[in-house]
Amino acid sequence: MQQLAAARGQVETWRGLERRARDLVELLELAIDEGDEATGSAAERDLDALEPELEKLEFQLQLSGEYDSRPAILAVHAGAGGTDSQDWAAMLLRMYLRWAERHHFTTEVIDATEGEEAGLKSATVEIKGPYAFGYLQSERGVHRLVRQSPFNASNARQTSFAKVEVVPEVESTGEIEVNPNDLRIDYFRSSGAGGQNVQKNSTAVRLTHVPTGIVVTCQNERSQAQNREVAMRVLESRLLEIELNRQEEEKARLKGQHVDMSFGSQIRNYVLHPYKMVKDLRTDFETSDTTAVLDGEIDAFIEAYLKSRVGEDS
């Protein structure tokens, strides 16, 4: 029913755009016949306003993968670079939260582990909105930051790394089968602020999938049952990713191609010193407006990546 509603919504959007364009063309032709310049100019402006809407819809046609329309589960992990890399992980998380806010998507931080001095060791966030996974799949990989470190006594130039993982959210419990015997479940007290906010009960949940070694934690919900439910959803999505990777590797093998499915390769450089530049190493798209990018304006990078992939699966 969800797929049917989504398909119906897409059809209605295209038909609505078609009706508006047809009505405006008829109005423009009528204005020309009657010499009504004011009405003709207004119709032309309205037609011009339809163009970006059409471009957006045409771009969404590229998001035709089986899971592209689903919500996304995005995780950020600090890499090499110590405190600076943990601060970099926090900056990336903020960038994606701001991007989601700009698109009116809903977000929920499922789990976050703070760094010893600053930033984050890791964080996992659920992002819900039209084609959230389709767009954000372009972000998985290693992101490299070069800047003058505020955590270095000599304010020296430093390079830091953080890894971003993005998986589609599993829609139903039956989509991925998880054998209960393969799970190790641990309960512990949620970390957080002191005072009244200290958790006196062990509500946080850690799931370990023994065959794959995947570990998922959730501690942001109020009850143990809620945390376990969210953790299971994330675990199933991670297992779905493994299956998708296996299918892609098999497809590439049949085509005689080599595809690195680890998402461990560096994809983008963010240089803040000695000059300012953000460059995607897969598409060569770049911009000098680093402030805007780190504030969530990453659509141009996403679109460049998705356009570069057109025809890959054919």
Alpha-carbon Rg, integer: 23 Å
Q: Outline, from the CA principal axes?
A: globular
Provide the structure class: alpha+beta
Main beta-sheet strand count, sense and barrel state: 8 strands, mixed
CATH architecture of the largest domain: 2-Layer Sandwich
Number of domains: 3
Sheet with the most strands: spatial strand order: 2-3-1-5-4-9-10-11
Rounded mean pLDDT is 84
Secondary-structure element order, as H and E? HHEHEEHEEEEEHEEEHH
Strand content: 15-25%
The number of helical runs is: 7
| DSSP strand tally | 11
Q: How much helix is in the residues?
A: 40-55%
CATH C-level of the largest domain: Alpha Beta
> CATH fold name of the largest domain, please?
Alpha-Beta Plaits
Low-confidence stretches: 193-200, 258-264
Question: What key attributes describe this structure?
Answer:
314 residues; alpha+beta; Alpha-Beta Plaits; Double Stranded RNA Binding Domain; 3 domains; 8-stranded mixed beta sheet; 3-stranded antiparallel beta sheet; 41% helix
